[in-house]
Amino acid sequence: MNRDGVARTATLGSVANAARALKSFTNLEPEWGVSDLARRLGVAKSTTHRVLATLTDEGLLEQNADSGRYRLGLAVFDLAAAVQSLDLHEAAMAAMTDLRNRTGETVQLAVLDGREVVYVERLDSPNLLRLFRDLGRRNSAHSSASGKALLAFSPPEAVDRLLRSWKLRARTPHTITTVTALRAELSHVRERGYACNRNEYEIGVVSVAAPIHDASGTTVAAVSVAGPSSRLDPIELQVAQATMETAALISRRLGFRSTRGAT
Asked: Is residue 261 situated within a structural domain?
């Protein structure tokens, strides 16, 4: 084989290793260390480290500063948006705009990534007092309404795997910090059809969220309304009802047909 052929083969091998590495990150296995991933891929640890470092430089992965383990980076979600969020975006934006206008509060669309939620759309409140000046694109699922809505309506076996060895960080004195309490909360969410976050992520902030399902019945996102507790506490039930109606409308636009009758 000539030199160009050797170089091309090596390049394709590197691309294949990078692709296989990316596909190893799933909801059930959201983080990988270098040694564990090298064993999974069947390649040298040094090769795996180079692949992970390159993917991190490109924003496709990010490294946990505390554990040194890797997880998918924000660039992956930008790519995923080109594949699935086109339909989700088109199905959601008009309904989200109506919900923002009905409630006067910030409306968000989130998807689940392991033990975190990633916010892919947001419509800010028209009120002078607004939230989320520096919200970022990730929140822990256990301390957010969107996260609890997504967990509650995910497959039980997937949730069980996530709950194993999950150390629930306390953001405020109101945050759920035990797996037992979180399981009970998720059960309540399933019963009433929506999730609440009362001062659990930030004192003085309340949010409600409802799940969005696609044509297969899979829970693919959650829509939420968030605002100061002074405004939302008195009208929480009305906002929750409006949020569930919006989630049901978006779900129907994605092809979901409930077996429990009209929502």
From this structure: no
The rounded distance, in Å, linking the Cα atoms of 44 and 35 is: 9
Is 233 in the same domain as 117? yes
Q: Over its length of 263 residues, how does the chain's per-residue pLDDT go in tens digits?
A: 455 554 445 456 789 999 999 999 987 889 999 999 999 999 999 999 999 999 999 999 999 888 999 999 888 877 765 555 457 888 899 999 999 999 999 999 999 988 999 898 889 888 755 555 444 478 899 999 999 999 999 999 999 999 988 999 999 999 999 999 999 999 999 999 999 999 999 999 999 999 999 988 999 999 999 999 999 999 999 999 999 999 999 999 888 877 554 33
In a shared domain, residues 55 and 84: no
pTM here is 0.66
Clarify whether residues 27 and 157 are in a common domain: no
> 162: which 2 tokens?
């996530």
